[in-house]
Design a protein that fits this description.
Radius of gyration: 18 Å
Order of helices and strands: EHEEEHEHEEEEEEEEEEEEEEEEEEE
Helix content: 10-25%
Number of helices: 3
CATH architecture of the largest domain: 3 Solenoid
Strand order of the largest sheet: 6-9-12-15-18-21-23-24
Structural class: alpha/beta
CATH class of the largest domain: Mainly Beta
Protein name: Acetyltransferase
Distance between the termini: 46 Å
Strand content: 25-35%
Shape: globular
CATH superfamily of the largest domain: Hexapeptide repeat proteins
Number of strands: 24
């Protein structure tokens, strides 16, 4: 498979390694820091607007290789590609259950485990050595960071960012566009657009306010 990366930074380099691990080829790295499309060492570099031309000429698939969830969604909306024009990249050292479902544009990094009947949305980042347990639902544009443990039956909303090493206990729900701090342990449902940190995780910020943290155990 030929793959076009949208984004050319550290995260894009990691995704490029994933692509290569499967014997596929990165044929372009597109980023708006470039003004013109040019080919160097058998790879195209240019602005993201070049993607439509390259898809047509090279018969390639696309990955949005940008870590920030909101920016990833913005670019998907801007490019207006069909779902089928996006690749789903699974590193050869990841373990994904045959009964799990992965959306278009999603990337699964090395050492990841996705267990039975889990459903992962589109344009999701499942980062290194995390676990998505059975029957979980991970929404579009989410990013689950390295080493996180999402236990059985958890629902993670669209755009959620779960920090490195965080744990979510079974059947809990994390509302859309929330952030869970690194190393946190989520034992309660988290409302949408909240930031929660600590052990156990406590909400310190919501969409419209900062929550008092007086005497909060972290």
């Amino acid at each position: 498979m030929k793959v076009i990366l949208i984004g050319d930074s550290g995260h894009a380099r990691v995704i490029a390694d994933n692509v290569i691990s499967n014997g596929d080829t990165v044929i372009a790295r597109l980023d708006d820091k470039y003004t013109e499309l040019e080919k160097r060492n058998d790879c195209w570099y240019g602005p993201s607007s070049s993607v439509h031309e390259l898809i047509r000429d090279e018969q390639a698939k696309v990955i949005i290789a940008i870590g920030a969830n909101a920016i990833r969604r913005k670019i998907v909306d801007k490019l207006n590609l069909s779902d089928e024009q996006y690749a789903t990249i699974i590193h050869k050292d990841a373990l994904v259950s045959p009964s799990a479902k992965l959306g278009h544009g999603t990337v699964v990094m090395p050492g990841v485990i996705v267990n039975a009947a889990a459903t992962v949305g589109s344009h999701v980042i499942l980062n290194t050595r995390l676990v998505i347990e059975h029957d979980c639902l991970i929404g579009d544009y989410a990013h689950v960071s390295p080493g996180a443990m999402i236990t059985g039956g958890v629902t993670v909303g669209d755009g959620v960012h779960i920090g490195a090493g965080a744990t979510v206990i079974p059947t809990k729900t994390i509302g859309a566009w929330s952030t869970i701090g690194a190393g946190s342990v989520v034992i309660d449902n988290i409302e949408a657009q909240s930031t929660a940190v600590g052990v156990p995780a406590r909400v310190i910020k919501t969409a419209d306010q900062t929550v008092s943290t007086t005497n909060r155990k972290v």
